[in-house]
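Take a record:
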Amino acid sequence: MTGIRKKSTLSAIIFLTVLVMLSSCGSEPAAIEDPTATPTPTKIIQVVPPTQTATPSRCAGLAGELEIMVLVGPAEVVGLEPYSVGTIPFSVVSDEAPYLIQGGGNLDYADILTKEWGTYEVTLNLDFVITGNCNADGNGGDLALAVEMTGSQMVEVNAEGFHGEYPWQGTYPFEFTFPLEEGASYAGEGFTFVLHLK
């Protein structure tokens, strides 16, 4: 009886052991996804269109001159050439907006009238300084200029024992705006300015 119990107990133990082994040999349960896991990021490729080259401003590198005609009053009275004509150069001196303008020059006039009664001589010396700026857009543009004129004039008369000298000196400021066009002009009392572009 004791032997039978031992065999039964041993059979039961072997049976249970086999069951445990069989149950442990089964497939492992599927892994549960972690709801907090970060998905693999999607790469976004951004297509950047090529940059368009900006059209250069008409003001960039602009140069030109002002043709100046000055009425020499005393000369006309006695029949001398009434006008002194000259040109004053200018150019844009900055590489970007605002496009600044600088320039300058001088204008000299001398004429003499000789008659049987004596001489009548007129001498005029003028210095000009140009400053301002150039503005251009798709519709054209303009030059806003300030011109400062500084000068002196001498009228000298010698007639039958008479000698007279009539000096003048002074400074005159002018301000005007030209359209950005060849030949644009401005006329004032005794002066005419004509724009020439290069």
Summary: Residues 70-197 form a domain with the Aspartate Aminotransferase, domain 1 fold (CATH 3.90.1150). The two ends are 132 Å apart (CA to CA). Residues 2-25 form the longest helix (24 residues). The chain has a mean pLDDT of 82.
